[in-house]
Amino acid sequence: MDNPRVTIRDVAARAGVSIATVSNVFSGNKPVNADLRARVLKAADELAYQVDRAASQLRSGQARVVGVLVPDLDDVFFTSLVSQLEVLAQKDGYDILVASSRDDLGLEQSRLRTLLAWRPSGLIAVPCSDALPEALRHEIGRLPIVFADRVPPEGSVVDTVAIDNREAGEIAARHLLAKGHRDILVAASSLAISPIRERVRGACDLIRTMLGREPTVIELGSNADRGAAAFLHWLERHPQPSAVIALTNVTTLSTLSALARMRIDIPDPVSVVGFDDYPWMSARKTGLTAIRQPIAEIAEAAWNRLRARMAGDQAPPTHSVLQAGLQARDSVRDLAAGPERGNSHDPDPHPNLEGAAASPKAVH
Amino acid sequence: MDNPRVTIRDVAARAGVSIATVSNVFSGNKPVNADLRARVLKAADELAYQVDRAASQLRSGQARVVGVLVPDLDDVFFTSLVSQLEVLAQKDGYDILVASSRDDLGLEQSRLRTLLAWRPSGLIAVPCSDALPEALRHEIGRLPIVFADRVPPEGSVVDTVAIDNREAGEIAARHLLAKGHRDILVAASSLAISPIRERVRGACDLIRTMLGREPTVIELGSNADRGAAAFLHWLERHPQPSAVIALTNVTTLSTLSALARMRIDIPDPVSVVGFDDYPWMSARKTGLTAIRQPIAEIAEAAWNRLRARMAGDQAPPTHSVLQAGLQARDSVRDLAAGPERGNSHDPDPHPNLEGAAASPKAVH
DNA sequence: AGAAGCCTGTTAAACGTTTTACAGAAAAAC
DNA sequence: GTTTTTCTGTAAAACGTTTAACAGGCTTCT
C-alpha cells in the first residue's frame, strides 16, 4: 500500500519491454507495435503510472507549460483572459503557470524570474510598464513571448496582441457627440499605462476636433473603491458633466459607484459609456452602453502567435490589432433627439451606427 | 551571445568551487562560508544563472509548486480565491499551477491527472462533485490536499475549508422575514452542488418554521445569461414573489438581469438578497443587500492548512467552517415598517441586526 | 542469393540538480 | 602531543526520463 513511486522502469518490467519502449508509447516520439503498445498501456494503467514531468522536462528540454503573467488577478478583464488561455492551452496539452505582478515593477521582475526558472515553452504577459522587463531582456530570441493588451506604443521586439485603443476611445467619444453631448468627462485609470493614454488620446482628439476644446481627464486608479472615492471627491468640487467616458472596467465601476452615492441618475442628468462587457453591466435597470473588447479573440490571437513561435516560427515580431466595438444600451441620453426629460420609456436601444464587429487585422 | 544554457557547473567553475557548494548556496541546505558564498553569488549574477526547477525537483522530490483546481475561471468567486492564493503562495515561495474543470467530472479528472504529473507539493481544489475524484484516491495519505468551498456534506477524508452554508441561507431568509416578507423565492444555481443544497436548506427550514409553508426553489445554473433567460421564463408564468434570495454571485446576476429586463424595480415590488460581495453590487442606485463570504479568510485558512500539511502535519483531517455575514444595503424593502410605496427616500440602510463579523471556527 | 534499406525495439548515455559519503583542516579534549 | 570532534567543502551517485547509437529481423532490390 505504500509503494513510494511508480516509474517507467516498473511499467517496463511489468509489460516485459524496455524502458525506451514505454517512453515511446507515452511521448509518441517513435512508433511502436500495436500489441506491445497495448501491453504497455495496460501495465501503466494497472500501476497507475504517470510520467514525471520534471524528469521528462529535464531530459527533453520541452516543458509543456507556459507562463502567464498579468497585472491583477482581481480584475475581470485579466481573469477572463487567463480563463480563455487556460482552455486554449489545455487543448494543446499545455499547463499554465499564473502569476500576478500586482502592477508593481519589482514584483513583475521577480515573478518573471520564477516563471522563467521553470523553463516554460512560452510566456504570455500583460506587462505593467512600456519598457521591456529586465528579466526578459536575455530571453528575446530564445523564448517565445507574446505581450497582450498592454503593448508599448512604439512597437515591440516581441509579438503583441491588443485592440486599437485609440479607436476605442474615439468610438466612445463619437457616440456621445452624436447624441448631442458637449460636456464630456474622460475617466482613465492611469495615464502611466500606454493603452490608456491611447484611449484618452482617441477620445480627446475627436472631441477637440469637433468641439474645439479639450475635455477634462481624471485618473481614478486601478482599484474600484479607491477610484469611487476619488471620483466622488472630484464630483463634489466640479460642475457636473453631461456624460462620462470610463476607459476601463474598473473605472466604470468607480464611476457608477460615485454617481450612485451622489444619487445622480443615469442617463439623466449624467450619461455614461463604460468599458468592457460583463454580465453585471446588463443586470441593471438602465443597461450600460460600453466599449466592448473582444477578449476571446485577444486570447486566441495571443495563443496562436505563441503556438507558432513554440513551433519554431522565427519571423520578425508581428503586432495584431483587433477592433473594439460599441455595445449600445441605455446609459446614454439622446440630447439631440428632443428635449423630453426623465427616463426614456422607449424600450429600443439606440441602433449601433458605428459597426461593432471585431475582426483581426495584422500589422507590420 | 548565444550561450545555450548556464548551469550550476558554469557557476562553480567561475567561482572556483565545487558544484555542491553552489547548490548549497542556493538551496541553503548546508551552511557555507561567507566569502565563498559571496563569490558564488557574484559569479551566478554575472552569468545570470537560475536554478533549473526541473532538475532540482527531479533530484529532491520537492516541487515548490501547488496545483489549484477550480470549477470555473470566469466566476469571480473562484478567481478571487485564486488571486488570494497566488499572493499567499508567492509569499511562501511557491508557484501555482491553475486548472479549470469547467464543472465537468471528466475534465476534472483529466486536469487533476496533469496537475499531479508535476508532482506538486500540494493541491487546493474546489471539486465539482461530492465524491472524491478518482484521480485523488491514490494520493490521499501522500499528497497534501485541501478542498475549499465545495465540501462533501458527510465529512471528508481530506482537509476542508468552507463557510457555514446552512447558516448563510438562514441569514438571508431571516433578514427577509424580519422585514415582513412572506412570499420568498429561492434562486439556486444547481442543487447538485452540496453547498448550494445547504444554503437552500438553511433558507427553507427557517421559512417553513416561521411561515408553515415551503418556499419555491428554482435552479438557474452557473451561467449568468442562461440563468437570466431561465428566470425570465419562470417570471412570465408565475405570480411575482415579494422577494428573492439568490444563492450565488452568478444567480444574483441572473436574477437582476431578468428583473431588469422585465422592468421590475428593486426593492419595490421585488426585494433581492444577493450572494457574495463585489464592487458591482454597490455600483448601482439601490445597492444590493447580500450574503458576504469572507473570501480572504477562506483562502488564508486553506493555505495555512496546506502549508501545515506540506510541513509534515499528519493529524486527522480538519474541517474549518467560517461564518458568512449580511451586508445590508437597499435592495430589501421593509414591509413591516409601514405601508408607504415607491422608492424609499430614506438614505439610511437598515442596520445589520444579525451580527455579520466573520470568524473562523474549527470543527472536528 | 546476397546486399541494402527499412522497421521496431534495446542499451546506455545524457539532462542539471541534490545529497550521501567522505576528506581534510581546525578546534577541542584528553 | 595525540586523539577525538566539529566544521566545511568535494566527489560521485542518484533522481526518472528522453534520445542517440545500435542491433536484429524483415522486406526489397539487384
Automatic annotation (TrEMBL), chains A, B:
Pfam families: LacI (PF00356), Peripla_BP_1 (PF00532)
Taxonomic superkingdom: Bacteria
Keywords: DNA-binding, Transcription, Transcription regulation
Biased composition (Basic and acidic residues): 342-351
PROSITE patterns (UniProt xref): HTH_LACI_2
Stretches assigned to the HTH lacI-type domain: 6-60
Annotated transmembrane regions: none
Region (Disordered): 334-364
SMART domains given in the database record: HTH_LACI
Annotated protein name in UniProt: LacI family transcriptional regulator
Protein species of origin: Bosea robiniae
Organism placement in taxonomy: Bacteria, Pseudomonadati, Pseudomonadota, Alphaproteobacteria, Hyphomicrobiales
